[in-house]
Fold:
Amino acid sequence: MKEKLLNIYFNSPIWIQNLIISIKGYQIKKNRFSSNFYKELDFYQSLDNKSLHEKIVLEEERLRKFLKNAKNSEYWNSRFLKYNINIDAIDIKKELKKLPILTKDDVRKNIDLIKINKEPLISKRTSGTTGAGLILYETREAENERWAVCWNYRIKQGIKLDQWYGWFGGMKIINSNVKKPPFWRINYPEKRVMFSAQHLNENTVDDYANKILKQKLEWLHGYPSQISLFAALVKDKNYDFSFVKNITFGSENLLENQKILIRKVFENAVLSEHYCMTECVSNISQHSNEELYLDRYFSYTEFIPTDIKNKYWIVGTNLSNPNFPLIRYNTNDIVEIIGGQIISIDGRKEDYVILKNGTKLGRLDHIFKGLIHIKEAQIYQPDFNNVVIRIVKSKSYDNHNEEKKLIKKLDLWFKNEINFKIEYLDKIERTKSNKLRFVVSEIKNKQFF
Structure:
């Protein structure tokens, strides 16, 4: 049935497609922005004014209440008994650590046992970038709180609730065989200009740029890989995007080389990341001072050391969603923390190149720092002995000088450790959800703890 509806959509005139997207946008807006959303937004804005100690106290109170409620879940009641969890213990966080880390596979196998059917639940799906997706459940109130936290972060960046913006996401919104503009569709209720990821290239980029200029879109949001690709395509075209005030990123990690490229095109824009996920077990926001802060109370986050200095697993508990409790859930994401400060969201375990001696090399985007004539890059590791550097060149890429700089940097990282070669492509393949994975590795069962 879904496939039939999609076929009808893709074969409809543009105005019908805009209508269908807008009807869906109206439903989304109505559900997300209920009176409960504004109540939650007020709460989180007031929470910003509290001290760290006050936030921690409130978080612990909510954690205890959350765990008491989780006993109504058949799965968690059994686990609490097995690991002798005392919810009334004075140190509730210490008690929590008795439980083993929860994996995505654990959730997938026990969905019906985890779920607490106290009221109607909404199903939602993870994209499954590095494996099979996951079906999760939440209440409408949990959905409202999730978006209140998101908008609290956006409002602090100066973004208005009722503001038009350009969206560079992964959803397919236009049939692949479309050759003429417009390469976007309009979601009127959410004031979202949805740009097609599948059609962005050297031949179409002027259409995208002119739409942003014509509508004076002061806020852009989307995948870093899409926005940086747009920046790479327009950086030599002398467009004036000085009116763009905010660019927010989600779903992928913003790499240093992408950041440099985007700033060359959008000189006045504040670039900010918001780390969140469908499971809602952790939330990290970037403030206007560019520092990353843990959003407390919404979820309870633990940073578990990996075997790499200053690198920690993000493990979390979804306090905002008591009817589908995920406790000590391993996100498979890694942060860098130095002196108690979150320095960077460092990616997933799959974002590391593994050497034969077991050394894990991360943050490899620094290899491409300063190489602004590269549109896109990806590192492919077929085995312990080799890596392939996949490059999409821009028109201004100098085959001799640029490659010479790249080889020099690759030598610094890989010489005498692993063989490397450069492969030039017209386009780098995306995942099913249209995300660009920076490192693709064939080495299986990589473990950090």
Confidence is low (pLDDT under 50) at residues 445-449. The chain has 13 helices and 20 strands.
